[in-house]
Request: fold
Amino acid sequence: MGGNASTSSTLEAAHRFGRLAAEAGWVVLTGGRPAGVMEAASVGAKSVPGSLTVGILPSGPDGPVGAAVDIAVFTGVGEARNVINVLSSDVVVACGVEGAGTASEVALALKLARPIVLLAPSPEAAAFFRSIETRASLHEVETPEAAIELIEHRLGIARWSISKT
Amino acid sequence: MGGNASTSSTLEAAHRFGRLAAEAGWVVLTGGRPAGVMEAASVGAKSVPGSLTVGILPSGPDGPVGAAVDIAVFTGVGEARNVINVLSSDVVVACGVEGAGTASEVALALKLARPIVLLAPSPEAAAFFRSIETRASLHEVETPEAAIELIEHRLGIARWSISKT
Amino acid sequence: MGGNASTSSTLEAAHRFGRLAAEAGWVVLTGGRPAGVMEAASVGAKSVPGSLTVGILPSGPDGPVGAAVDIAVFTGVGEARNVINVLSSDVVVACGVEGAGTASEVALALKLARPIVLLAPSPEAAAFFRSIETRASLHEVETPEAAIELIEHRLGIARWSISKT
Amino acid sequence: MGGNASTSSTLEAAHRFGRLAAEAGWVVLTGGRPAGVMEAASVGAKSVPGSLTVGILPSGPDGPVGAAVDIAVFTGVGEARNVINVLSSDVVVACGVEGAGTASEVALALKLARPIVLLAPSPEAAAFFRSIETRASLHEVETPEAAIELIEHRLGIARWSISKT
Reply:
């Protein structure tokens, strides 16, 4: 998860995380639009042969979709689709938390008790989310590599295998 | 799309349609629950190597999911997910229209102007949906084979290829 | 509930039903847009002093709202708001069932087991909805007066009182 | 907006704000459940004759509703209803921002560019939301009285009048 209009270092981190997640064998799910962190993570994932990307879009099928999205889910429910992103993810990785949409997704992940990883958050974001009472598991890392390590070894998220199909 | 509690001939048609659609190279999207037409169509599709199935679930991740669903999208929005099913499908195939949920999906497909195929509808369902004013393309067929033929040659729906990933 | 583009006799029935429902002391909930049955029922209700009307809109606050809607609920979820209409109504009254949106609301009301009254349905609509297996209570009437009588005496729906506030 | 499990000073502020908002002639909209800030604000509002309260519930009609809610809107969409709360409010007032649900509503209000007032936020919440880039108007106040003053004189939100009905 991440903003439409992120800094170049956030976009680079999103691209690298997408690639590493796909190499590790996970499906990469994003908000699906051709912008910002969503686009960067999907493109990173699709640079890996055999990868699979899912996009949960706010629009119906007339809206824009990133070219690196394999499976486009058109919700037509606008920002309410942020809840679907969170519920459908085994772990939510927030790249940057620079925008309000990402902040809502982190807050929803905390509310819905989904595991969440803040990747290179601002000091304000880290301080705020740590201050909220919650049952969820909240983690902070500084690099995509550390995020992958955490997800695999500490959270133990199962890999999806294309051979399953 | 189809009911939770369908007749055995409807379930057989759903299974066969799922298999034929997967063989033709389409992704099979259902409501994702381990019941009725959803389950039958997904199981049919997964009998084909290289197939891909998507389930759009009414529940969050605590709810039941069919074992033949590859990509589970947990919406948490209950019956409102029927709109997402319709918007995310290139063509909606309704097996039987025996229940109210399926009827709502056919009606929503008509409302949202998505192409729709009624597979072996009851005379009452066929007569009613034909009577509704709409911009959508509504079709009736009697067999899964005829549905595939229609979708491929008359509707010209593009195939999804696993090699894309 | 009813279509955007209904016949004049359906609109007259909607207006009359809205007025009678408000006179009987019920809150009138519609889809809220300035069109068709929604508009007619709200305007009918607001011709009664002390009435209260609610509109459940598909759009956000930038979208159009009927002038006779007191409480506008902006959902931003498009056609998925039909589920909210149904869940929030003590009884669903469908005026005409001439369009696909109304058909989806009737189907959802059947699915969600809400009491439903079809007011002057077409023969095809009446035959179809009667043919669907369901736990819901489905009724047919020919006039707004008969709908009020049914709701009050047979369904026993509680009246809302402005004095409550 | 506010948490289910708030401190007593937050609940007192919510109750007082609800009363003052109703006295000023505004409709008070909350999440509708019989808990926390939602309940306190609705009860405060209903202590004023002629007031009107709306509750936007996550559940269907089988779920719990606060006794001080006049108009219950049953969405059935779970946490996705937070978007509806925000879109339907002329101004969002967050009491405390102590929980993740409220944080998601503040973030969504920022995303959707709705005016928002943080009433007695924690230092972490204030610092974080100020740090997010946004088009929305974000305000902080320390008392319910200051919130009312701001909404009336600086934001110029129109009052709803029961005489309208």
